[in-house]
């Protein structure tokens, strides 16, 4: 009995105590052992189960033995029962063994399948891991492929974004170390390739844009020219409306300007390579490197564009020069506005300052050696268009305009020089005969267009104008000068182009046209008809000053009421008036010279004739014929005031010459008969003077004296010499009334030579009648009184 616990521990130590206990409890509780048996077979340990059952059996035998000892009889009974149990156990064992064999037979295939399944589970796990690995690799490979596709299609910015995505999201997760190393090695190479590629494209773009720049500049300047043309057309319509309103002809028509200001072509050029290169370099973190590269290359191109070829005249090269520069800065303006920080405003300003400095220097040098006004105008006009096109893009062109303003004097000096030659040519080719106009269009072209008509009524043709052909030619030259000057002064920096134009217009009229006329007047080669026509021409030119000033104001868009104010006219008007006086004086000098030729015939007069002549002297016949010719021509050409002046001058000169003839040193003495002859001459001349004065309408002018009055001195002298009481000359009252034009000294000299009898009779008083004796006594008294007076 004392050994039972020991045996119990031995059994527990030899078997699985936990399972033995379970079996024991199950058996003790008469529970179904099927699950335990099934579990043992599932675990592949049927032998252990059998061993445990054996242990349970032994344990039970021990317990039975002990129970038998306690209950022998019961034990015997129990043994019997146990023997039955043992038989059942053997049968169960055999049954289990057979079941186990059958189970093994059945489960073998299942176990094989299970092993295969477990292997498949392992494969599945490996495949899943492989799939995950492949997915990562495939994604990376796809990204690499897309990157290659973008690079092959020159889409570098998306390619770089893919590379960045690979670096940030995938490269650390690539399970394949070899692939990871390859990709890590290729990414910098690809970036370097992209950088080189965009740099190559940028270099190609530099070549492209340099060739495109000229076209861009031409288009921009062409747009500026079109805008200027539209503006000039508007001003022309406005001037036409003002002129119609001023003249009262027609009603101004106003309409909306429906022209599309933005109809000009858009400046198209490709900046995509620049944008791409800039984005790529920015993405790569080397933006400053590209910005410096861009700026340096563009600066080099600008310096090339600013070079002037000495092999080609600037007149021919200035347009390509400025169009290239205009295109360059239009491109830079677009890059500044759209390239996202590629350029700074200070960099563009530096480029512009470099260009403006070079352009001003070139213009100053070229302008200084130019000798043709039209060349300077062409260049100036193109430079202003250049400036206008760049002002639209925000560039300051004031230094250029200042250079153009500085050249204003030179341009006008060249222009004046050219027009001086033209005016000299037209004056040299003018015959100075009244212009004969045969057609209405000629009348409109030469008369109406310069407001030279004296009436609004169209005359009958042929029409004889009061001026010669040089007048409308000179007017055309002046009008052309105004237009050329306005063309130069317009679109520049002049705030008041009208004042500048007025100054140079005065220069043209005074220093060129008036000077040319004065040279002709003082040349000493004028005949009467030329002098007369020049005088008439100057009168017409004087009237045109207001017209030219009005045209200048109109072209300068100055309100006409400002021009019409007092003291705003051209100085040339007063100068022409003075020149007209010089022309009249020259005309009078020519007339006097011609009259002197006829008056020289007085030397053939017999101053001591025995009988008084019945007719006028020969010289007076010539003078009368000449005066008729002179006044007839003058009446056709000159205005009445000028005609009056010519007549007065001619008659006054004749009168002076007659008086001078009595004073001539060659005339030692004269007698009454000679005086009577001179009296006959004066009567004929006075009759002619009255006829001319009345027939020409001069009497309507209400002048201070008539033509007869111009002969007063000679008439009073002859009257004195024919007077029966010449001594009355010394009577102040009588002298004032009858001899006011006579000078004491002249009368004294003439009277000393006056002898009223021929030489053979001077000493014989018996033959003289009383009247003659009284005249002689009175003359002698006059001579004495005059001697006492002197």
From TrEMBL:
Domain annotation Exocyst complex subunit EXOC6/Sec15 C-terminal: ranges: 399-753
Keywords from the UniProt entry: Coiled coil, Cytoplasm, Exocytosis, Transport
One GO location term (cellular component): membrane
Record-linked InterPro entries: EXOC6/Sec15, EXOC6/Sec15_C, EXOC6/Sec15_C_dom1, EXOC6_Sec15_N, EXOC6PINT-1/Sec15/Tip20_C_dom2
GO biological process: acceptance of pollen; Golgi to plasma membrane transport; intracellular protein transport; pollen germination; pollen tube growth; vesicle tethering involved in exocytosis
Exocyst complex component EXOC6/Sec15 N-terminal domain sequence ranges: 52-221
Subcellular localization: Cytoplasm, Cytosol
Role this protein plays: Component of the exocyst complex involved in the docking of exocytic vesicles with fusion sites on the plasma membrane during regulated or polarized secretion. Involved in polarized cell growth and organ morphogenesis. During cytokinesis, involved in cell plate initiation, cell plate maturation and formation of new primary cell wall.
Similarity section: Belongs to the SEC15 family.
Listed name of the protein: Exocyst complex component
Lineage: Eukaryota, Viridiplantae, Streptophyta, Embryophyta, Tracheophyta
């Amino acid at each position: 009995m004392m050994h039972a616990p020991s045996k119990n521990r031995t059994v527990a130590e030899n078997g699985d105590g936990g399972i033995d206990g379970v079996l024991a409890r199950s058996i003790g509780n008469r529970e179904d052992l099927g699950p335990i048996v099934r579990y043992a077979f599932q675990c592949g340990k049927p032998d252990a189960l059998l061993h445990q059952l054996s242990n349970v059996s032994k344990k039970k035998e021990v317990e039975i033995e002990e129970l038998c000892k306690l209950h022998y009889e019961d034990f015997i009974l129990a043994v019997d029962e146990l023997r039955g149990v043992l038989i059942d156990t053997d049968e169960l064992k055999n049954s289990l063994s057979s079941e186990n064999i059958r189970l093994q037979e059945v489960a073998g295939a299942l176990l094989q399948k299970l092993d295969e399944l477990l292997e498949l589970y392992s494969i599945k796990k490996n495949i899943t891991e492989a799939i995950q690995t492949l997915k990562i690799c495939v994604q990376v490979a796809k990204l690499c492929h897309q990157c290659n596709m973008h690079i092959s299609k020159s889409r570098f910015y998306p390619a770089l974004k893919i590379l960045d995505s690979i670096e940030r999201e995938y490269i650390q997760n690539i399970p394949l170390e070899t692939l990871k190393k390859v990709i890590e090695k290729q990414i910098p190479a690809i970036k370097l390739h992209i950088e080189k590629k965009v740099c190559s494209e940028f270099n190609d773009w530099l070549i492209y844009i340099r060739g495109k720049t000229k076209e861009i500049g031409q288009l921009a300047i062409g747009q500026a020219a079109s805008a200027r043309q539209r503006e000039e057309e508007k001003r022309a319509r406005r001037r036409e409306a003002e002129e119609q309103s001023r003249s009262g002809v027609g009603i101004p028509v106003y309409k909306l300007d429906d022209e599309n200001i933005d109809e000009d072509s858009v400046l198209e050029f490709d900046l995509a390579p620049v944008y791409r290169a800039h984005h790529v370099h920015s993405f790569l973190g080397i933006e400053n490197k590209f910005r410096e590269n861009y700026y340096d290359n563009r600066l080099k191109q600008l310096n090339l564009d600013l070079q002037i070829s000495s092999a080609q005249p600037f007149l021919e090269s200035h347009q390509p020069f400025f169009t290239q520069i205009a295109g360059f800065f239009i491109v830079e303006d677009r890059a500044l506005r759209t390239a996202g920080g590629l350029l700074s405003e200070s960099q563009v300003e530096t480029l512009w300052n470099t260009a403006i400095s070079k352009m001003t220097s070139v213009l100053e040098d070229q302008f200084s050696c130019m000798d043709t006004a039209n060349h300077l105008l062409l260049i100036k006009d193109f430079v202003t268009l250049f400036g206008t096109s760049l002002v639209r893009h925000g560039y300051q062109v004031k230094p250029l305009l200042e250079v153009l303003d500085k050249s204003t004097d030179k341009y006008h000096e060249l222009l004046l020089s050219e027009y001086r030659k033209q005016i000299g040519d037209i004056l040299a080719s003018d015959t100075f005969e009244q212009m004969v106009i045969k057609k209405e269009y000629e009348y409109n072209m030469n008369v109406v267009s310069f407001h030279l008509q004296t009436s609004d009524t169209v005359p009958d043709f042929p029409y004889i104008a009061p001026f010669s052909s040089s007048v409308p030619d000179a007017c055309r030259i002046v009008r052309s000068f105004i237009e050329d000057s306005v063309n130069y002064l317009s679109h520049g920096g002049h705030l008041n182009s009208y004042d500048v134009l007025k100054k140079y217009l005065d220069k043209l009229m005074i220093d060129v046209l008036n000077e040319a006329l004065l040279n002709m007047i003082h040349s000493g080669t004028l005949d009467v008809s030329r002098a007369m026509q020049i005088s008439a021409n100057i009168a017409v030119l004087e009237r045109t000053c207001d017209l030219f000033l009005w045209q200048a104001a109109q072209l300068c868009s100055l309100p006409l009421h400002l021009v019409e104010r007092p003291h705003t006219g051209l100085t040339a008007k007063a100068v022409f008036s003075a020149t007209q006086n010089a022309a009249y004086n020259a005309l009078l000098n020519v007339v006097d010279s011609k009259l002197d030729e006829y008056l020289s015939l007085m030397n053939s007069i017999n101053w001591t004739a025995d009988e008084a002549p019945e007719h006028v002297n020969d010289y007076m016949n010539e003078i009368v014929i000449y005066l008729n010719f002179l006044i007839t021509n003058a009446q056709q050409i000159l205005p009445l005031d000028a005609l009056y002046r010519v007549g007065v001058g001619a008659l006054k000169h004749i009168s002076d010459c007659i008086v001078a003839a009595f004073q001539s040193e060659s005339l030692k003495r004269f007698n009454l008969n000679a005086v009577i002859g001179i009296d006959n001459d004066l009567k004929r001349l006075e009759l002619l003077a009255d006829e001319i004065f009345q027939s020409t309408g001069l009497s309507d002018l209400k002048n201070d004296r008539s033509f007869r009055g111009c002969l007063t001195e000679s008439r009073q002298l002859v009257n004195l010499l024919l007077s029966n009481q010449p001594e009355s000359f010394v009577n102040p009252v009588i002298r004032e009334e009858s001899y006011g034009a006579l000078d004491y000294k002249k009368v004294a000299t003439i009277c000393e030579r006056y002898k009223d009898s021929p030489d053979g009779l001077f000493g014989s008083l018996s033959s003289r009648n009383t009247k003659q004796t009284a005249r002689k006594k009175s003359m002698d008294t006059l001579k004495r009184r005059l001697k006492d007076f002197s």
